[in-house]
Amino acid sequence: MEWLTPSPEEWVAIRLSIRVSLVAMAGSLVPGVAVALLLVRGRFPGRSLLNGLVHLPLVLPPVVTGYVLLLLFGRRGPLGAFLAEHFGLVFSFRWTGAALACAVMGFPLLVRAVRLSIEAVDRRLEEAAGTLGASPLFVFATVTLPLILPGVVAGMILTFAKAMGEFGATITFVSAIPGETQTLPAAIYAFTQVPGGDTGALRLTLVSVAISMAALLGSEVLAARVGRRAHAT
Amino acid sequence: MEWLTPSPEEWVAIRLSIRVSLVAMAGSLVPGVAVALLLVRGRFPGRSLLNGLVHLPLVLPPVVTGYVLLLLFGRRGPLGAFLAEHFGLVFSFRWTGAALACAVMGFPLLVRAVRLSIEAVDRRLEEAAGTLGASPLFVFATVTLPLILPGVVAGMILTFAKAMGEFGATITFVSAIPGETQTLPAAIYAFTQVPGGDTGALRLTLVSVAISMAALLGSEVLAARVGRRAHAT
Amino acid sequence: MTIAVDVAKRLGAFELRAAFRSGERLAALFGPSGSGKTTLVHLVAGLARPDAGRIAVGDTVLFDSAAGIDVPRHRRRIGYVFQDARLFPHLSVRSNLLYGRWFTRATEGEPNLDSVVALLGITHLLGRRPGALSGGERQRVAIGRALLARPRLLLMDEPLSALDEARKAEIIPYIERLRDEAGIPILYVSHSLGEVARLAADMVVLDAGRVVAQGEPLAVARRLDLLPAAAEVEPGRFLDVVATRRDERYGLTTLVLEGGEIVVPDLDLSLGQSVRLRVRARDVMLALERPVGVSALNVLAASVGTARPDGLSGMEVSLDCGGQELLARITRRSFDELRLAPGMAVFAVLKSVSFDRRFGEDADARPVAPTGGSP
Amino acid sequence: MTIAVDVAKRLGAFELRAAFRSGERLAALFGPSGSGKTTLVHLVAGLARPDAGRIAVGDTVLFDSAAGIDVPRHRRRIGYVFQDARLFPHLSVRSNLLYGRWFTRATEGEPNLDSVVALLGITHLLGRRPGALSGGERQRVAIGRALLARPRLLLMDEPLSALDEARKAEIIPYIERLRDEAGIPILYVSHSLGEVARLAADMVVLDAGRVVAQGEPLAVARRLDLLPAAAEVEPGRFLDVVATRRDERYGLTTLVLEGGEIVVPDLDLSLGQSVRLRVRARDVMLALERPVGVSALNVLAASVGTARPDGLSGMEVSLDCGGQELLARITRRSFDELRLAPGMAVFAVLKSVSFDRRFGEDADARPVAPTGGSP
Amino acid sequence: PAAEAQEKGPVVFAAASLKNALDDINAAWKAETGKSATISYAASSALAKQIESGAPADVFFSADLDWMDALAKKDLIKADTRRQLLGNSIVLVGPADAAGSIEIAKGFPLAEKLGDGKLAMASVDSVPAGKYGKAALQSLGVWDAVSPKVAQAENVRAALLLVSRGEAPLGIVYKTDAAADKNVKVVGTFPADTHPAIVYPVALTASAKGDDAAAFLRYIEGDKAKALFERQGFTVLR
Ligand SMILES: Nc1ncnc2c1ncn2[C@@H]1O[C@H](COP(=O)(O)OP(=O)(O)OP(=O)(O)O)[C@@H](O)[C@H]1O
Ligand SMILES: Nc1ncnc2c1ncn2[C@@H]1O[C@H](COP(=O)(O)OP(=O)(O)OP(=O)(O)O)[C@@H](O)[C@H]1O
Ligand SMILES: [Mg+2]
Ligand SMILES: [Mg+2]
Q: CB–CB of B127 and C86 under 8 A?
């Protein structure tokens, strides 16, 4: 079973992948919920456009998404230059870029999950909260959000899992620099590209699956607890 | 704007991609709903395992998924050989294989969407249908299913969009044989691999986006209509 | 048909442990909020599983933990009008109403869409979705839906509480017809003693998950002065009388008892039939001499029994009326002025009486509201 | 505080077009199922937007389409007890109750958690989730939640219909206290004339989206014999009387009117105060001579007016009692036997009377249930 | 449909980087013979694995010796038909406005030239261009200094893109790729002896049937094809 033990460099990739996935998940949470809310409740002209935009990363081959990210958030890209200048936020060749790519790729999944939950919320409960004096923001925080928590949890776990597997957009956008942007899937990919790399690929795949399954199980437990709280017994 | 007109071979890829995506979507519908139902309502030992299995394609790099499919459903794979022998169902290097790969890749998205909807169903309505004499199957068909339709529609459109963009697993599983397994994303990929392929890639990307956006818009209209029916006015 | 229930069910801190058996066509489940009525009805409908026990309707055992029987809910053929209407939001009112029709033989006659819809006053709503109905409209559709499933037992959980009196007054006779003619036995949950007294021949009283009493509603209510809900029933007593004469001209029937006669509006009683009357204490006036030239036709000879103060200014006087007890509520001042004393002979003048349901057991006699005939 | 409403709102085929203004502390919205009560209340609470119109509570304009005012619902400070409880399923009962507290100054005193919870009998439920409550328990929590938000206007949409009589009897006095002491004006939706008569000084009757009548509840109910719901109110008439003497010994107060006196249990009326009584036709007995030696203390001299048949065996006789009208319901046979004819002098013997709410306007006098004092 | 594909001519599994050249050649072949090949472009690794699991390919045209060797070891190609057909060279590219060129020699100061920028390469352990580049840098003795600054892209095109977009100041790519991109400029060419020969092997697969496959193979080895390969910048080795 020795072949199962990852090498030190592989450990680096594993830790990096977890970090990237967690950041991607956490970072897309607020925008994801906000966009989902906009899409469900908003009545504005660009709604369909926004909806389409959110789904783009799903539709495009990941390589294309990575290419677009490079054009936008690269050192010379309009957004990349702006963010670097004003916020010191640099994505290119950084793990932050990997996280951005993963977040973008997982975004449609997160938004859909949250959206479905929001659509299922009984608006009469929100009305009730309103009559009790709660402002729309407070209503959202104390009524809507708790009720959509299962959907948010589902969306987060989807984003996390997707980030653990995402590779095409990431490697195109920020390439694979060991310790900085070489995530687990990039390492796995590299193994698949050489004859006889199968054991290595299998080893890392097992690690990746183990991590994701643990996260999945955790999310199910969490969702069940949240659900039990919401629906009582 | 001449560069925008796809060549005859590209038209083949476009038509193929649409066919593959539709078949992937339609084919995963019933299993997707069934698995979602099992995961929400079922209380059996292998539940977590099934849940993990469903999420695998999300977690694994697409190349690995494609490779696993190749091992399982290839001409020499255990499932592939079995299906070919007993049902005459051949996946390897056929467009059906592309559809299978796309279906597998989209499956976690479909299941999650349907699952969230099922979790939101008011079980008291199902109870009421039961007291009126409806068997569990009939209850499902006449109460549960109509109530989860928005989720099913969302899941289907996610699967379709994913299939339109899926590339890694497909090309690894069934290669990119023009007219048979070369889907739109594979054609786009090929363009990105050669000097001067950018216009071609852009052209096909635009086509792919246009198709997906049309499908998306259609699904939104459909979901809105379904939703209006369900929630009345 | 007999409903026999003997179940135990635990829900968090609440424990239901109820056993009763009723052969009446309409039995009422009565009890304060949270006493376990809905829980019990859920068990009968198969929406929850008793921890142990047995439930049978007629010869059909629906649940028996000992015998391992648990008929699935869709085979129980039990119509359930829920406390919350539970209409299908994705179906029109018409489809909601007809939902149960999928599962019943479409025999001719009785509960059919047109008649039910007309009775419930929901004809104009047929094309709507439940979301566009008012609370009372929803409840009416729910009643119709359960009826149209042609159940062999109807469970009604406070079906009328969302309705206005006029609508109630329209629907109650229909429920009576269902009970008497369609032969569908009904288990009726209500917290209105008025409704129960009007509809039920048998009342099962739940309190904190136990059956604390069962029997004829008003008798039970009288017995259970402990039951807070009985507060609504004013004090009174029952008189057994016999229908003796009919006055065709004035549409009156004379009921006789030892000590006198009582005249009530004509009621299709067969002569010789014995009937039970409820006389409220506040409807009894006392006179030292038989009054003449008064409009009250009902004057009974009686003798004063015990008396006890009732409130600040009242007295409750017990009377012996040919061996039967009557109660009169008069002011303390009148009591003093008339110098009433135990054993004294007086005349009880009754302004109005009401009929106890017991005589409804005879097929012919129509039940009458508790505040019925005023002679 | 005055509630002034003048709104139009279309919902599908239904059109609400209602205008009323009420200065009473508790105004009732009354009307049959589907008449638009909930719709109207929604508009007041800001849950729906009138197509046009104006809504004001006291000096605060909540909505005015002409002036472009539309106060958002969370700034209206209107407590709403919904017809369906609408508790927050993810919060405990305690958190549900305290939800509104986030938005009110936590001033000392009145509606505080402990008192509300004790009154509503939900202390043992505080730790539960709404899903584990019975229907009536849910409704009680909803009432508590609205109260604890310390609203400046309370909307109650059939708040008591899910409750048993005993519980109702407990809560009604509390609502009265809210109305009288806490000074929270209440708009109370109900289809029970009994509740309305007991609680409301002012009743707005809706029918098919229009205001068809407004005024003192029983008076309106009497006027609107057209209104099907009025069926529940037995025929009767009002007498204006003056409290004249108090009999300390027997705890009685004598009310005087032309034609005689009526004695009622002591009611803390100031002498000289004028009061309105409701006398039900079935509580009036007629005698040709003043009865002596009877327990009824209330004998009024009257003269027979018109009479009309009432049902198969009854007669409704109108009496002139010192200029005021009384109604008596007697049997046709008595009518004939007494040879009653217009103009004839008779004596009306009243078994019981009830007080009209109008005298409740005097701060001191406690309102009394319609079936109150029986002398 | 599979039979249809057979009728259309031989099925060719070719490395994606050959697309331009092979598409041209296929068109020319069709013009001459009326037949055309069905060409599936993907990564050499994926194609090889597919052939291993029974893909209906007649010709395998790899960008990588290793994968051809792997198939040969398993007798999945007709060894006698194998040719090392094309050659290529790897170059150092910089932005189009780069001043002058860099002399590539033993110990040349690549790390210093990079500054705090990255060196864009295809994946150095798996992608041929990356492997050649790494070998070259190792033989030049600069790998250890440079390796921390290497950004490994999925393939050589992606590496080129990084330079083209200005993300990385320098990159190592095929000459064929560099030539077509106006945003980059070749600043140095790696001497052929610094790395293993860059060759594109081609062969008939063991399962190849019919004459068309052999005919097509012969055609791409012919003179017409040579010109078309050379137009794309390849060196034809024979
Ligand atoms: N969304 C809607 N579309 C069309 N009609 C509606 C809609 N909502 C309510 N209605 C109709 O408006 C009328 C008034 O409804 P509302 O809920 O105000 O009645 P209500 O007086 O509260 O009755 P109840 O006592 O039964 O609760 C009803 O006839 C109802 O059918
Ligand atoms: N899931 C649960 N967990 C714990 N207690 C529960 C649960 N469901 C109901 N109860 C409790 O069981 C008791 C009986 O509830 P049930 O709904 O049967 O009352 P009910 O008699 O129908 O009352 P109502 O007249 O208010 O509808 C209540 O005290 C309620 O709080
Ligand atoms: Mg209940
Ligand atoms: Mg209503």
A: yes
Instruction: Give, for ligand 2, the residue of D134, D140, D167 to mutate: max count of ligand atoms closer than 8 Å to Cβ.
Output: D134
Instruction: Using CA coordinates, name the residue in chain C closest to D39.
Output: C134
Handedness of CA E87, E92, E93, E98 (dihedral sign): negative
Other C-beta atoms closer than 10 Å to the C-beta of A228 total 12
Instruction: State the CB neighbour count (10 A cutoff) for residue B135.
Output: 15
For C190, the closest chain D residue by CA position comes to D164
Same domain membership, residue C246 and residue C168: no
Q: C202, C223, C244 — which closes off a domain?
A: C223
Q: How far apart are CA A179 and CA A12, in angstroms?
A: 6
Residue C151 and residue C257 share a domain:
no
Query: How far is CA A11 from each of CA A16, A170, A208, D226, D274, rounded to the nearest angstrom?
Result: 8, 19, 11, 86, 94
Asked if A194 lies within 8 A of E66 by C-beta distance, the reply is yes
What is the rounded distance in angstroms from the CA atom of residue C36 to the CA atom of residue C208?
Answer: 7
C/E touch flag: 3 or more CB pairs below 8 Å: no
Same-domain status, D208 and D265? no
Residue of B nearest to E47 (CA): B175
Query: C-contacting residues of D 72-91, CB under 8 Å?
Result: 83-84
pLDDT band of residue D181 (cuts 50, 70, 90) is low
Which of these, D79, D23, D39, D25, lies nearest to D211 by C-alpha position?
D39
Establish if D314 belongs to a structural domain: yes
Q: What is the pLDDT of residue D352?
A: 55
The per-residue b/e assignment along C126-149, b for 16 or more CB within 10 angstroms, e otherwise, is bebbbebbbbbbbbbbbbbbbbbb
Share of chain C above pLDDT 90, in %: 23
pLDDT at D204 over 70: yes
pTM: 0.79
Q: Is D364 within a domain?
A: no
Which residues does chain E have within 8 Å of residue A175's beta carbon, measured at their own beta carbons? 118, 120, 151-154, 158-159, 162
pLDDT value for B43: 87
* ipTM given for this complex: 0.78
Domain boundaries, chain B: 2-232
Q: Which pLDDT score is estimated for C361?
A: 30
- Ligand 1 atom at shortest distance from the alpha carbon of D31: 21
- Chain A contact present for B91, CB below 8 A: no
Among D162, D195, D223, the domain-final residue is D223
For the residues A15-29, what does the mean pLDDT come to? 95
Return d(Cα D114, Cα D129) in angstroms, integer: 18
Q: Give per-residue pLDDT as tens, D68-89.
A: 999 999 999 899 999 888 999 9
Give the residue numbers spanning the domain of D276.
236-355
Mark whether C10 and C140 lie in a shared domain: yes
Which ligand does the CA of D139 lie closest to? 2
Collapse the DSSP code of C325 into the 3-class scheme (helix H, G, I; strand E, B; otherwise coil) and give the result. Answer: strand
Structurally, how many domains does chain D consist of? 2
**E5: chain B residues, CB-CB within 8 Å:** 177, 179-180
Q: Which CATH number is D146's domain given? A: 3.40.50.300
Mutate to test the interface with B, among A17, A49, A56, A59 (most CBs of B within 10 A): A59
Cα distance between residue D21 and residue B210, in whole Å: 59
* Residue in B109, B120, B185 nearest the CB of A61: B185
CATH number of the structural domain spanning residue D288: 2.40.50.100
Domain B2-232 has CATH 1.10.3720.10: yes
Shared domain for D63 and D185, answered yes or no, is yes
Give A169 to chain E, closest Cα distance, Å.
Answer: 10
From the list B24, B18, B20, the residue with the least C-alpha distance to B208 is B18
Same domain for C210 and C273, yes or no, is no
Q: What is the pLDDT of residues E161-179, one digit of tens each?
A: 889 888 899 999 998 888 8
Average pLDDT score over chain C: 79
Residue C232 has pLDDT above 50, yes or no: no
C10 CB under 6 A from ligand 2? no
Residues D130 and D196 in one domain: yes
Summarize pLDDT for C47-94 with one digit per residue, the tens.
999 999 999 998 899 999 999 999 999 999 899 999 888 999 999 999
CB of C35 closer than 6 A to ligand 2? yes
